[in-house]
Amino acid sequence: MKWTVLADNRMNKDEKRQFFASKATKVERRRQRLMNNKAYQMMEGLTRYMDRYYLDALIGVIPGWGDTIALLSAVPFVYFSARVIKSVPLTLAVLNNGLRDVLMGMIPFFVGDIIDFFHRANIQNMQMIQGFVDGDEAIIKQVNQRAFQSAIILAILLLLIALMIWALISFGSYLYSLVASVF
Fold first, then answer.
1. 44 and 9 in one domain?
2. CA gap 50, 37 in Å, rounded
3. Global pTM?
């Protein structure tokens, strides 16, 4: 920043335009490089199929497997935010969205599937990642402010998911014993 200010004071108007144009093309090249990444393209495809075509809600009908597939669909988002963009707050926010989607999808008796129909975690993750790629200061500020909150929420969501798995297994064994006692 210091050198930019010094350079600005010594440049005429044409030189300043070229300087800032080269910075803009540098940002555009970075953005294009990130968008050409295979993980980014996979995220776009997952977002299209899982959320825009409501495949997440349809897969959720399959007990256990639907939520597992939904959790696996968050992996490219986590990879991209952690390894390509290298942002810990963004990674925490993406994990938060993905785990919240899994937890809500695990609610039994098709309630979770109905919630999955309206809660589109992949679209939210894509918007956050695109905000980082585009340099949207509002999204970057929002994600940075929520980093600590996301870490706490992630710990709570992991605990709730474990409790939900325990509750579903207990309920399944209860139903099995009930059916077994009848026959």
1. no
2. 20
3. 0.69
